[in-house]
Design brief:
By secondary structure, this protein is α+β, with helices and mostly antiparallel strands. The protein has 3 domains: about 80 residues, Uridine Diphospho-n-acetylenolpyruvylglucosamine Reductase, domain 2 (2-Layer Sandwich); about 110 residues, 2-Layer Sandwich (Uridine Diphospho-n-acetylenolpyruvylglucosamine Reductase, domain 3), CATH 3.30.465.10; about 100 residues, Alpha-Beta Complex (Uridine Diphospho-n-acetylenolpyruvylglucosamine Reductase, domain 1), CATH 3.90.78. It contains 8 helices and 20 strands. The strands form 7 sheets. Strands 6-7-13-11-12 form a 5-stranded antiparallel β-sheet. It has a 4-stranded mixed β-sheet with strand order 1-2-5-3. It has a 3-stranded antiparallel β-sheet with strand order 17-18-19. A hairpin with a 2-residue loop joins strand 9 and strand 10. The model has no long low-confidence stretch (mean pLDDT about 95).
């Protein structure tokens, strides 16, 4: 497999420790590991996985993911920075580009719209995959089209327009089809005369976010999705913000701040962060996530849903 990947121009390695590529600093080895920074090489890597009948996993910035202690018995395709193209008010970008860096680049070019997400970690593809957002806005609001690589009977490219992407709160069609791999995005933004001024506000928000989040410990970011508000949740109406109730509120009110299993801990600073407090295994984290869900369900009748992706676990 390694030699086959090299023949098509991809540098590949074996038994690479994935903990070195995740913000949790947790994860066993990848059987095969390759790095790509453009759509063509991503296509080649997926063709190779299909040819050799290998399971594959796309690894972006390494946030929002928990990789099993046993690792991943297949091909891990690590995305890195690629090209950004400006044409009028359409901006095209490789899925592996850093999301926060991309947002800043659009602002520096005089475009507005994406500043809500300037401090969200991860890649552009990851932000669109999960429709990442803040302040009532999401990445999908500004997507014009998404080009994806479909891996089924054959490997092929398909362009999805905005409607076909089926964006919803922390959702997209790509979450429902794990073999549809986002390769390139086209965003449509409008010029904003005050775009440059927003960089100051973004830096201020970054400092405020750092003050509120447990950045002294490795984590995957927010562990659970916030809960969409509905009439059924009227007893908690005062907790809702932008039409959602923060998952952290349920977790905190359930008395789970500081709860630990092994080296995994619910942060005492922000309850929606399960952190690696030192030497945590992936199993520790997964068990603590399950404990939080159980306790919140028992106390409030609310079913929390993980925001973090669990990769390589059996029976999940």
């Amino acid at each position: 497999m390694i030699e086959e990947l090299k023949k098509i121009g991809l540098e590949a390695r074996e038994n690479v420790a994935l903990r070195d590529y995740t913000t949790f600093k947790i994860g066993g080895p990848a059987k095969f590991f390759v790095v790509v920074n453009n759509k063509a090489n991503l296509f080649k890597a997926l063709q190779a996985a299909k040819k050799f009948n290998l399971p594959f996993f796309i690894l972006g910035g390494g946030s929002n993911v928990l990789i099993a202690d046993r690792g991943f018995n297949g091909l891990v395709i690590k995305l890195q920075e690629g090209e950004v193209k400006f044409k009028g008010n359409q901006i095209t970008v490789f899925a592996g580009n850093n999301w926060a860096g991309f947002v800043r680049k659009t602002i520096e070019a005089g475009f507005g719209g994406l500043e809500f997400g300037a401090n969200i970690p991860g890649t552009v593809g990851g932000a669109v995959f999960g429709n990442a957002g803040a302040y009532g806005k999401g990445a999908g609001d500004f997507v014009e089209s998404a080009e994806a690589i479909i891996v089924d009977d054959e490997v092929r490219l398909k362009i999805f327009d905005k409607e076909e992407c089926q964006f919803a709160y922390r959702e997209s069609i790509f979450k429902k089809h794990k073999d549809w791999i986002i390769a390139e995005l086209a965003f449509k933004l409008e010029k904003d005369e005050k775009a440059a001024e927003k960089l100051v506000q973004i830096q201020r928000e970054y400092s405020e976010r750092r003050a509120k989040q447990p950045l002294d410990f490795p984590s995957a970011g927010s562990s659970f999705k916030n809960v969409l508000y509905s009439d059924e949740l009227s007893p908690f109406k005062e907790w809702q913000q932008y039409g959602k109730i923060p998952a952290a509120r349920f977790i905190e009110e359930a008395g789970l701040k500081g709860a630990k299993i092994g080296g995994a801990m619910v942060s005492g600073k922000h309850a929606n962060f399960v952190v690696n407090a030192g030497g945590a295994s992936a199993d520790d984290v997964a068990r603590l996530i399950d404990l939080v869900k159980t306790k919140v369900r028992e106390k409030f009748g609310v079913q929390l849903e993980e925001e973090v992706q669990l990769i390589g676990f059996r029976n999940r």
